[in-house]
Specification:
heterodimer; A: 152 residues; alpha+beta; Alpha-D-Glucose-1,6-Bisphosphate, Chain A, domain 4; 7 strands; B: 7-stranded antiparallel β-sheet; 48% strand
């Protein structure tokens, strides 16, 4: 096959009317994260969401539309500063094909009684799969789901 | 509050060796150690590499002039996880750097190899997050350029790997 890579970075900033500790917990605690982190509702789960939230720990989740393909997310946590910062590296697979490897930095900054949340994703997309626009749209959709969860 | 700085850089190099030989300088433990780890002015305290997808590479090294430069005995640590390995074509890896046990950067890097005439074109791309007291993307790029000069010297010696 012909190999190629596309490198890209995007940054998304959101303001949440919730304390940094609450926003951070939505990432750190599996019971919380599983309520907002995942594909569209109509997707079928292919494996249970697992999260071992510590430096060196891993997270995985897979699922997809009923007619395929299976989207698999595998992350490793590289840096955790409680209520302030999380850095993870994650791979996405479509069925058996690795389509990207990304570094994601999540920063939680106090802003009055709320939080300014900044997500920086630096990634490499492989062999023509996916594109950065699609990944950024998908990530914004996840953060919308996070917002709904936090506001409940 | 912690601070985080993000940056990216690309280094392109050409080597008078086939892609197979350049790739082998990354995959063979003895060859990799020769250009990536060993160096004048450094005491290597440990080095191990398990070159396969999901495998790790770990090193601990001490600058002999660490007290002079950093004002205290200084030990650096490097931990790498290999995300993807396509023999002779591409290596994608994630790595951290720490100083005296404190992590100061996390990076995602890719090294891509392609034939160019009788030699090899290598494109190295790094994305990183640097924390308080970290070296930052410019110093990191300079560090890799020095390493790639050593890679070039290693390949010029005509070593098999």
């Amino acid at each position: 096959m012909r190999r190629s890579t596309t490198h890209a970075t995007f940054v998304i900033e959101r303001a949440y009317p919730h304390a940094p500790a609450k926003v951070f917990a939505a990432f750190a605690d599996l019971q919380s994260k599983t309520k907002w982190f995942g594909g569209p509702e109509e997707w079928q789960k292919a494996s249970e969401h697992t999260l071992d939230f510590r430096v060196g720990g891993k997270e995985s989740l897979s699922g997809g539309p009923s007619d395929g393909p299976v989207h698999t997310y595998n992350a490793t946590y590289w840096d955790i500063v409680e209520n302030e910062r999380i850095v993870s590296a994650y791979e996405m697979h479509l069925d058996k094909t690795r389509i990207s490897v990304s570094l994601a930095t999540m920063e939680f900054k106090p802003n009055g009684s709320g939080t300014t949340f900044v997500l920086t994703e630096q990634g490499v997309f492989l062999d023509g799969y996916d594109d950065t626009g699609e990944r950024e749209r998908g990530t914004r959709e996840l953060l919308n789901q996070l917002e709904v969860y936090l506001d409940q | 509050m912690t601070t985080t700085t993000h940056g990216s850089f690309v280094i392109e190099g050409r080597y008078d060796a086939t892609p197979q030989r350049v790739f082998a300088a990354w995959s063979d433990p003895v060859a990799k150690r020769a250009w990536f780890v060993e160096g004048d002015g450094w005491e290597i305290q440990s080095y191990e590499i398990d070159f396969r997808e999901g495998g790790t590479e770990k090193s601990r090294f001490r600058p002999l002039k660490g007290e002079e430069i950093f004002g205290e005995k200084t030990i650096f640590g490097n931990e790498t996880v290999f995300n993807e390995i396509v023999p002779n074509e591409r290596i994608i890896f994630t790595y951290s750097m720490d100083r005296n046990g404190v992590r100061f950067s996390i990076s995602l890097a890719s090294a891509e190899f392609s034939a160019a005439g009788s030699g090899t074109r290598m494109v190295f791309t790094e994305h990183g997050a640097w924390f308080d007291g970290g070296d930052g993307p410019q110093m990191r790029e300079a560090g890799w350029r020095e390493l790639f000069d050593k890679l070039d010297q290693h390949l010029s010696k005509g070593a098999v790997a």
